[in-house]
């Protein structure tokens, strides 16, 4: 009986310590800008590599929902439920675009830095730039940029869990 209690306590400690390191629960989310209220979307729900990532009205669709896949070091690769592709910097490094997942690519890895009140700054790991809407007024289909950190609410994002069917 004593052996069982020790094993049970060790199991509880393992579960508790694992949750301490999890920054964001692995699940599917819409990524919502704090200022504009717009979400990250694959433009025109196009599944081809190179398709721009744009701001879009918040809807419960697969093309605006991202599966958070945690890397070994606590960052994330974001996989579209619609296309099963991910976000990456465009060839000029200034905007985000849809790309085929390359598990070894640091360009497709993002750090979610807590910004208070359940919001995050989203930093693209390799270039060290932050996900930023091109238009602070929230115009639909405007590109999403990668820019230097501004310490501004325009670079803050909330996560809204969702499980779309279309």
UniProtKB/TrEMBL annotation:
Residues 1-18 form the signal peptide. The keyword Transmembrane does not apply. Keywords: Lectin, Signal. GO terms for molecular function: carbohydrate binding. Residues 25-90 form the Ricin B lectin domain. InterPro entries: Ricin_B-like_lectins, Ricin_B_lectin. The keyword Signal applies. Coiled coil: none annotated. It holds the Pfam family RicinB_lectin_2. This is Ricin-type beta-trefoil lectin domain-like. The lineage of its organism: Bacteria, Pseudomonadati, Bacteroidota, Chitinophagia, Chitinophagales.
């Amino acid at each position: 009986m004593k052996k069982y209690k020790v094993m049970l306590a060790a199991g509880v400690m393992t579960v508790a310590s694992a949750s301490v390191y999890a920054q964001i629960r692995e699940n599917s989310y819409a990524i919502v800008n704090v200022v504009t209220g717009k979400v990250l979307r694959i433009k025109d729900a196009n599944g081809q590599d190179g398709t721009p990532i744009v701001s879009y009205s918040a809807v419960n669709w697969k093309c605006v929902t991202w599966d958070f896949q945690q890397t070994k070091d606590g960052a994330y690769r974001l996989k579209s439920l619609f296309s099963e592709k991910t976000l990456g910097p465009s060839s000029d490094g200034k905007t985000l675009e849809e790309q085929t997942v390359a598990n070894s690519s640091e360009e497709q890895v993002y750090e979610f830095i807590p910004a208070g009140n359940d919001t995050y700054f989203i930093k693209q790991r390799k270039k060290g730039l932050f996900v930023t809407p091109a238009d602070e007024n929230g115009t639909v289909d405007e590109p999403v940029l990668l820019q230097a950190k501004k310490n501004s609410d325009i670079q803050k994002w909330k996560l809204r869990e969702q499980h779309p069917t279309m």
